[in-house]
Amino acid sequence: MIVSKWLVRQETPADFSEIEQMQAEAFGPARFERTAFKIREGVQQASQLCFVGELNGEIAGSVKLTPIMIGNSQSMLLGPLTVKAAYKGQGLGRLLLTTVANEAKAQGVQSILLVGDHPYYGPHGYEQVPHGQITLRGPVDLDRLLVLKLQGGQMPTGAVVGGYVKPALVATKQSDSQLVDVMQGSLAMAT
Questions:
Q1: pTM of the predicted model as reported, rounded to 2 decimal places
Q2: Mean pLDDT, rounded, of the chain
């Protein structure tokens, strides 16, 4: 827990309605059509990496991370980062970004992807993704596609998929017509 003017804590199920209302006010109904929202759709958020910022017991902002794959690399998708209009420009968004990045790094997360404005997120370490290096299914302004590398190393590459998915089953030539999941070592019957 981080204490300043703001109290930052993990989000709880009891916060859901208030966060949803805050997001509706900030982004409107069009948020459901955005590519980032569609990637998060049906994927369980990383609850240990979802935070709210409070002032005098009122939720004033929130940030969430959702597991994704970028090619073969596990990553997180940031968003939405939301701050109530009455509290914008008072440092809560920056504090939430710092909190979620520090906690994600401590938990071994390799990178965080987001669609946002580089002038805002750049000072927090987010880099613009070179066009074509990371692809999303759906429209996105490629100049706003940003990544934060938390553990050093190379920027991830490939297509973005919601959730941590297992690799596709790899067909092998076997007399019993089975498919072998190479990563898990389990067997699945071919149909």
A1: 0.83
A2: 85
